[in-house]
Amino acid sequence: MKMKSLVAVLLFVACAASVPLSDNFLDQSWQTYMKLFNKKYETAENEFVRRVIWEKNLQYVNQHNLEADMGLHTYWLGLNEYADLENREFVKKMNNLIPRNLTTYKPKLIFANDNIKDLPDTVDWRTKGYVTEVKNQAQCGSCWAFSTTGSLEGQIFKKTGKLVSLSEQNLVDCSASFGNNGCEGGLMDNAFKYIKKFGIDSEASYPYEGVDAKCRYKKSEVVATDTGYVDVKSMSEDSLQSAVAKVGPISVAIDAGHLSFQLYKHGVYKESRCSATALDHGVLAAGYGTDNGQDYWLVKNSWGGSWGVKGYIKMARNHNNMCGIATQASYPTV
To answer: Are 308 and 201 in contact (CB under 8 A)?
Structure first.
């Protein structure tokens, strides 16, 4: 019913304005987009709605990139598999992190080391074997599970020298009693608690489905566990830098609820509307560095390889805690 109502509204607007809502000159580009990302819509009406949203997002991308080419932005946008979604529906589907209550939460263990004098200028844990391939959470709000596995995969590799892809679906299906809610949201620290008690299966033995399902965890298939977790000193980018450099990839929470983030392509991401406390998305800080004088965090996302730089984003570092990246960081102990 919602889709029919939206179609009706769009048709009414088109008739009232006496202009088409879609640009015929973009027909071939639209067909290419659908083919490239294997888009198949249930009805012609549904495709019409997605085409209108896609064209609106294309205009936004073109305007932003024109400004970026003139030096007004430090990053560029592009069309990815999410370009046919309105930002608010995209956020509702993909960004379901359950953030901590920052006023009442009292961490038990804190990594607080603000001394960055002797740290390397650049860290990229991908080159050291700590990071698995970029994954895709699909249209399920399980970002928290991917952030969890990413951090634990790195710590297990650090301890054993073996990189094993861990099961996000295991966490989606089985960690509700620890405060997580599957595709409707969760928190990395809650997932670390679950893993401490039960362990976690491998991706191979418990593959990802992107939907809430019955728990099929098998103790015999457990390939990793943890002994707890450590929270990085909140709001301190220096402590986060120390943790990334000395510990490995770190789970972080960010404000990713902006169209500019949804359609990010490359460059150092700076979004003036980003909040340092309204966090809605779990990702992985896999390193840091400097690009043309711009300090950045190297962040692994879970939206597939078509998003960003093959699934990664460079987020501004030492820029007022951009999007809250240093507000709620943590990592497991093994």
So the answer is: no
pTM over 0.70: yes
Residue 121 Cα distances to 53, 127, 136, 295, 296, angstroms: 41, 15, 30, 10, 11
Which residue in 96, 113, 301, 321 is the catalytic one?
301
Contact 306, 258 (CB under 8 A): no
The answer to whether 269 and 313 have CB atoms below 8 angstroms apart is yes
**Every domain of the chain and the residues it spans:** 27-77, 87-139+150-163+226-333
Report which DSSP code applies to 136.
B
Burial label for 35, CB within 10 Å (0-12, 13-18, 19+), is exposed
Nearest of 300, 307, 263, 269 to residue 282 by alpha carbon: 300
Residue 38 designated active-site: no
Return the CATH number of the domain spanning residue range 87-139+150-163+226-333.
3.90.70.10
266 is an active site residue: no
Phi-psi region of 91 (alpha: psi -120 to 50; beta: other; left: phi over 0): alpha
Selecting among 281, 319, 321, 323, the annotated active-site residue is 281
Helix (H, G, I), strand (E, B) or coil at 304: coil
The question of whether 281 is a catalytic residue gets the answer yes
pLDDT tens, position by position, 75-133: 999 999 999 999 999 999 999 999 887 777 878 889 999 899 999 999 999 999 999 99
Whole-number Å distance between alpha carbons of 241 and 116 = 7
> Which are the contacts of 266, defined by CB distance < 8 A and separation ≥ 6?
75, 76, 78, 308, 309, 314
